Amino acid sequence: MKNIFFTLFFLFSVASLHAQILDPVKWSTSVKKVSDTEFDIIATATIEDNWHLYSQEVPEDGPLPTVFTFEENTDFKSLGEVKESKGITELDPVFDMVITFFANTATFTKRVELLNPSGTTIKGEVEYMVCDDTRCLPPNYVDLVFNLPGTAGAGTTTTTTNEAAENAAENAETTAVADIIPQTDILNTNAEKSENAEASKAAVEQTKKQETKGLWTIFVVAFLFGFTALLTPCVFPMIPMTVSFFTKQSKSRAAGIKNAIIYGIAIIVIYVFLGAIVTWFFGADALNALSTNVWFNFFFFILLVVFALSFLGAFEIMLPNSWATKVDKQADRGGMIGIFFMALALAIVSFSCTGPIIGTLLVEAASKGGIAPFVGMFGFSLALAMPFALFAAFPGWMNSLPKSGGWLNTVKVFLGFLELALAFKFLSNADLVLQLHWLEREVFLAIWIAVFGALTLYLFGKFKLPHDSPIDNISVGRLSLALIVGAFTIYLIPGLWGAPLKLISGFPPPMQYSESPYGVGFTKLGSGGTASAEEFPEGAHLGPHDIIAFHDYETGLAYAKKVGKPVLVDFTGHACVNCRKMEERVWSEPKILKILNEDIVLISLYVDDKRPLPDDEKYVSEISGKELKYIGQKWSEFQILRYKANAQPFYVLMDHDEENLIDPVGYTPDIDEYHQWLQDGVNAFEN
User: Fold this and answer.
1) Which of these, 90, 189, 425, 646, could form a disulfide with 203 (CB 3.0-4.6 Å)?
2) Tell me, what's the pLDDT at 226?
3) With contact defined as beta carbons under 8 Å apart, do 607 and 639 qualify?
4) Torsion angle of alpha carbons 77, 81, 83, 84, nearest 10°?
5) Which of these, 33, 68, 65, lies nearest to 52 by C-alpha position?
6) What are the φ/ψ torsions at residue 142 (nearest 5 degrees)?
7) Are 424 and 301 in contact (CB under 8 A)?
8) What is the number of domains present in the chain?
9) 3-class secondary-structure state, position 26
10) pLDDT digits (tens, 9 = 90+) for 169-206
11) CATH code assigned at 630
């Protein structure tokens, strides 16, 4: 009897553990009065131990952020964005970026103005994602209700607990009890926990080092930008003019050196002030949030195209002439004030050349957030100011400068082509987020080949652009640059056939975001062989490590029946940290990759796929009672209803009758264990 009781208890415990529908975050709402008409509406997340909730602002290509949306209501007016409590900021080694998340609790506050004194109800929704050390959950959507008191109820604080998530979890758990299918969770060993603790402890130092390294990178790039701006036709000819002014105005050599130093410092102050204004106006981190936004990426694309066309000679971007006239008058005053206005005149007069460079620099610095725009402007202005100050202090050095000429416009055109190529990176970012597949890898590379190919022909003198001077021969420097650009163009071409192009890694879309999964001509096969277009399955895609994968369950199942192989259903997510760990560290092993390529049919179902469901496929969730909006919600519900689990990664090996060949598993970082699991499933299918 004792053994029977122990056995039943053990089975019940295992079933409860492995068939659990996880719901580690509970939301509550409250309202705090600020004045007679202003209120703070507060959403509080209570997070279970070992789980973490992501911030509202995460870098591009990172995990899914927490997002709040509110129903339109004429009874209240928004007075700002949602502010969040201080989170934990650490370097995530999988995403290779610094990410902010919350543990235990998080508070999100939004201030509103009440327009209807009789009181009103504000309704909203929060979309969020949570992960622990071994798994991530699909995006969840919870309704939030805030009851604003009227003037009669002033001074009271109301608190309401949202029950939608709890009801959904209860419904899911009820379903789970009816038909439990065991799920094997891989628990951390004590050694692994100790390793994670040490990693977390060292993360702060690593984060600080990475942030410092990032700022130094911005500084160096900005310095090179400033030096390049110096070689444009708007700036370079002004060096001898400036030197002549200081030579004539200074009564002694010491005075000349002093004035030159003041002039250089004034240039730095003007541009750094611009960077400080941008940082202050948008906020230290707001630019980072904007740079990851779809519409701002599209705006940056348009902006850089305009800058590129300006450099290529289509038009000039100039500040009003009246500004330069007024500043010139102030420069005649002499003294330190006059020198400062001379520096300001340089900034205004040279804007048609420096403006696009500064704009591009600020866009790049914006993606780093924080004080990066400030640091960028300091590096740019330092490179721009140093030659002016040095040549003004030591006029004799002027003899070593090359003479002005057509080469200055060549530099400007060269920058125009570079800006044009860079612009498509921002358009690609927007396309990737929206998953429109308008600018897939082949199209992106074709555009870059065209841009750099045209630049090569230009440098060889095969055509001229507006403002170009006639040339009888090509200088050695121009020829060398043409050969370098031409070689780079040729290097890009194999990318159309699937070459990795590691030199520009991170610029073009990833390999799997491709029009032709095997590259143009279907000549690239994940297992290292070759295939024709006919051999590549219809409806398939190129997954991690070039594994043939299906993103639709029915299509993948039909193909598995056709080729007589078992099915591996991979419940995953674009922003799932541990899914990426499995793909990068486990799936890449040759013995596992061989099985994935040759012995099974892979169906990867992304539970965070934000593409909308077609109208004819929309239906009401059996779990939450709400209409499903996205493709990812469909696969998440499928996983919960069929397998009584909602964590990712989650792997199921099944036969053609959709029966499990072996118990499903979750995060399994042990390579030998995962390989054995795959092999046992394949053997069960064959037997």
Assistant:
1) 90
2) 80
3) yes
4) 120
5) 65
6) -120, 130
7) yes
8) 3
9) strand
10) 444 333 333 332 232 232 333 443 344 344 344 444 44
11) 3.40.30.10
